[in-house]
Design goal:
This protein is of the alpha/beta class. The chain is built from 10 helices and 12 strands. Strands 8-7-6-9-10-11-12 form a 7-stranded parallel β-sheet, covered by helices on one side. It has a 5-stranded parallel β-sheet with strand order 2-1-3-4-5. Helix 4 crosses helix 6.
């Protein structure tokens, strides 16, 4: 079944983003509605040709989605989708690649700065109304970024912008990328994935900005953490499974690394019993690196552009096509 792209219904499915309201403000005459809960999405999955979704997706929904012809993922990640099953049903899928380049790169840099300037320690002291005195122990003081080395794993749009931010702080930036034909201009050194173990001991901070694939699942494990500097920090704004959490918890117990900034975890929300909550040298953010006040507008910009291309019969030119 093919879709008449001039007469479609759009189903927005998200627990927080006000996508339906944002789309309505654009003045489009396309029918649309929003599901705020999983059970509502499940109940109405068969009512629309277009689904705009993030977080709610379940591949079992495909059996009920007889009208669906296009899925716009309102995030960069799309590992939850069974691409073969979508192709078999003639459903096109596009992610929102590039939508959160500024947000995620800035969040990663904020975590780096928070560790360097010991902001988590200051916040804890503030809650206790404790004015910390000057520190005699040099190793315990705040630090400066100039001259430090950042290792970025994944030099896509987010990684490139993070490299630009880090270099503005006079950091040395080395990066790992699958395709070495591009990206060398953004960093001081560019290497393939096979160089990870040799580069880790050089890094003062390791930042993951890569997609989750079979090659990056468990990317940072016990051996990689052991190879890092004991004064080094790990920042993960990629996907939770890129890091072996059990190995990370073990490393904290051994003092293998100095700390970690974690925006993503293997299971989300993070279980209240996880030891990660209790480490003083961990900064946890609840998968909010990509969130900004402009997020809905950015999603609708991409959606409308893709709908125009579908209506023109140019599905080969979809933005963020997977």
């Amino acid at each position: 079944m093919t879709a008449d792209w001039n007469h479609i219904t759009i189903h927005f499915a998200h627990p927080a983003y006000r996508l339906d309201e944002c789309f309505a403000r654009r003045g489009s005459d396309i029918a649309h509605f929003q599901s705020w809960k999983r059970e509502d999405q499940r109940a109405r999955i068969g009512e629309a040709e277009v689904l705009v979704v993030s977080g709610f997706w379940d591949n079992a929904l495909l059996d009920q989605a007889e009208r669906m012809r296009f899925i716009q993922v309102c995030a960069a990640g799309y590992d939850a989708f069974d691409l073969d099953a979508l192709k078999e049903r003639g459903i096109r899928l596009a992610n929102a690649s590039g939508i959160n380049v500024n947000a995620v790169s800035e969040h990663a840099m904020a975590l780096v700065l928070a560790f360097t300037r010991k902001l988590w320690d200051a916040r804890d002291n503030q809650k206790k109304a404790f004015w910390r005195g000057m520190i005699s122990d040099i190793a315990s003081r705040e630090d400066e970024l100039a001259g430090k080395t950042m290792l970025i794993y994944g030099l896509g749009a987010i990684g490139r912008r993070l490299a630009k931010l880090a270099r503005a702080f006079d950091m040395r930036v080395i990066a790992i990328k699958q395709d070495l034909s591009t990206g060398a201009d953004a960093v001081d050194e560019l290497h393939g994935p096979e160089a990870l173990q040799t580069l880790l001991p050089q890094a003062d901070v390791v930042v993951l900005t890569c997609p989750l694939t079979e090659k990056t699942r468990g990317l940072i494990g016990e051996a990689e953490l052991a190879a890092m500097k004991p004064t080094g920090f790990l920042v993960n704004v990629a996907r939770g499974p890129c890091v072996d959490e059990a190995a990370l918890i073990k490393a904290f117990g051994k003092g293998t690394i100095a700390g970690a900034g974690i925006d993503v975890t293997t299971v989300e929300p993070l279980d209240p019993s996880s030891p990660l909550w209790g480490f003083d040298n961990v900064i946890l953010t609840p998968h909010t690196a990509g969130e900004t006040r402009r997020y809905e507008e950015n999603v609708i910009d991409i959606l409308q552009e893709n709908l125009k291309r579908l209506a023109a019969g140019r599905s080969d030119l979809l933005k963020g096509i997977v």
